[in-house]
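pinned: reference chain
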Amino acid sequence: MSDKTIPNATAKRLSLYYRIFKRFNAEKIERANSKQIAEAMGIDSATVRRDFSYFGELGRRGFGYDVKKLTDFFADILNDKAVTNVLIVGVGNIGRALLHYRFHDRNKMKITMAFDTDENPMVGGTIGDHVPIYGISDIKKHLMGTDIETAILTVPSVKSQEIADILVDAGIKGILSFSPVNLDVPDDVIVQYVDLTSELQTLLYFMNRQKES
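pinned: its structure tokens
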């Protein structure tokens, strides 16, 4: 089955499966069954088996799943074999927090440059792990000759579409946006949204339901 036909819910669990198998591997566990994986994920084993079925025969009945093999498998499909360089636009509170988060210690992702408005006094300096901060008007110049195709967007909602247009024009193909505004981008550009307010409201909803039960 091709990646394009994998349900979104399954696709969103792939990085979690990868994290679990890396942990199993670090703990010297050689084989794991769907029940063990499900318990580590906090889901049911039927969901694990259904998710894995989209990728063919990943395990064998009575044997389980080879931890090393599955760790490598998820590293491949998540492109975690080589370092992925990422840029960030917006060095406000969320942007600075992300710039101080050491992605590279946990996965092969690294924020290598940051951008903000040309007038920001931080432009011309560095932040976090010596990440340079540039003015957004110079983005094409700084992307020239790099392999960066992924951007994290942490700008005010009213600016998100304008900045997204600049990113697309500069050759960016993937955007992780912390703005709740739906971005209008070409079909060959992928956008994922992180809405912290919505996630918190969902958490509070489930907490209230638990209290009422």
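why pinned: The chain has two domains: 3-77, 84-197. The CA atoms of residues 7 and 15 lie 14 Å apart.
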